Amino acid sequence: MFPLPADLVERCVSISDGVKRDLSDPIYLLEHASRCDDLNCNHPMCITLKASFKHFRDCLDFCSCEKCERFFDLAFLHASICESETCLTFLCERIAEVRYNMVICKGESKKEAVAGPSSSKLISEYLNLDEKLCFYLKKRNLI
Predict the structure, then answer these.
(1) pLDDT, tens digit, for every residue of 43-67?
(2) What are the boundaries of the TAZ-type zinc fingers (predicted)?
(3) 17-43: per-residue pLDDT in tens?
């Protein structure tokens, strides 16, 4: 077995089953921030991601907010590879549920519009987080 470079060892943390995770891995950071209750967490990205959770949840500028776009991409990446049925990672279960419902609706009637916002609606018409998720899923053709 080859020794790990010192800088890699410093960036890794051992998780419960003994597997090492890279602390710079965005998926790991998302999972960590979703579960971390420490308001003074030593990892600076933890606090940044917690602020991103709030921003994504509260921002109504769906069409042009780069922060929301980047955060959705990360959350969707996690949700697309997550195998847990009860995942605690922020938005994981919601993305999976909204995506599943959109696929079901699409399959039931290709003539009817899929539930969720269209890109032509005014931003103020988006009423909840599920509609925001629908918007991003449709925009990226992820259904």
Answers:
(1) 889 999 999 999 999 998 877 899 9
(2) 16-95
(3) 444 556 678 999 999 999 999 988 988
Name the residue among 20, 113, 122, 110 with its Cα closest to residue 62: 122
Q: Return the closest-CA partner of residue 75 out of 27, 11, 131, 138.
A: 27
Sign of torsion over alpha carbons 7, 36, 14, 83: negative
CB count in 10 Å sphere of residue 23: 15
Q: Using DSSP, state whether 122 is helix, strand or coil.
A: coil
107 C-beta neighbours (distance < 10 Å), count: 8
Q: Measuring CA to CA, which residue among 141, 112, 142, 128 is closest to residue 62? A: 128
The answer to whether the CB of 80 falls within 8 A of the CB of 92 is no
Helices 26-35, 66-81: inter-axial angle, 10-degree rounding: 90
The DSSP output letter for 21 is E
